[in-house]
Amino acid sequence: MAACVTLTLSTAIAAPPPMVAPAAAAPTAPAGPPAATAVDAAAELATAEKSYADLDYDKANLIAAKISAGKGLTHSELVRAMRLLALTDAALGHEDQAREEFIELLTYSADFQVDPNLGPRVTAPFLEARGYWRAQAEKPGVEVTATVHATGPGTLRVITRDPTHIVKSGNVGFRWGSAAPYTTLPLAVSDGGDGAAFDIPERPLTATRLDYYAQVFDDRGNAILEVGNPGSPKSALVDTPKAVVVAGGHSIFASPIFWAVAGVVVAGAATTAYLLAKPKAATGATLTGGAECGSSGTGTPATACH
Fold this sequence. Notes:
Layout: H1 41-53, H2 57-68, H3 75-91, H4 95-108, H5 120-134, E1 141-147, E2 154-161, E3 169-176, E4 183-186, E5 196-200, E6 209-217, E7 223-227, E8 234-237, H6 256-277
Antiparallel strand pairs: 1-2, 2-5, 3-4, 3-6, 6-7, 6-8
Helix pairs in contact: 1-2, 1-3, 2-3, 3-4, 4-5
């Protein structure tokens, strides 16, 4: 039950309270850059990338740090922010910090490469980060296998590899065709093994393509790993039998031309079969002892035929 407080006003004038010196404010740590929101991340990234292109590494680094500390970043935004952060820290001589950022970047984008023309200040911490992941028994990643059929249901199997245990949640989405809404389901993260399986309903008669995606997120809701996404899904095609269609949209079996040609072909085949089966008339060639052709009329063998 909610507490109720009643204030009673008195007509008497109370004496003023004694003056008390205000307490000194507790010292506060300097505030870091505010975290970027999902709304302004794209604009901030464009500004940071322009600053990097203009060789303003300090400004690009500051903006990249703010974005990477944000929440709800798409996978593309997260990779772009970490790329800028690692490259600018390396260019500014922050080698240890750059190495750790390259390790994190390779978690999100395992195929990332550094331009060797950037020099050893940048390539050295990157190569150390790549060496770190090469020494690991397992690499981060998401693997999705879509099994679809012309008839009957299908399966979507998702395997997550998370050796650093940064994945906190995930989801999968799928749809038949490109216009239907996605069916979205939560993904129970399983490190390796057989993964998680999702049943795909039987396709509609007019659908020949399954769109799908799988994403996993960290504790700030950033998409750290993905196979496709709602805006750019992966696809699996279904081979379906197709009727041969002629002009006018009718099946070829409804075309009188087809049946006329078919009749000629059948008649020709019957004639050929008859001629092949008909006994052949006897000829004047007789084979007696040796190879002879006809008779000389004198009883002597004829010369060999050529």
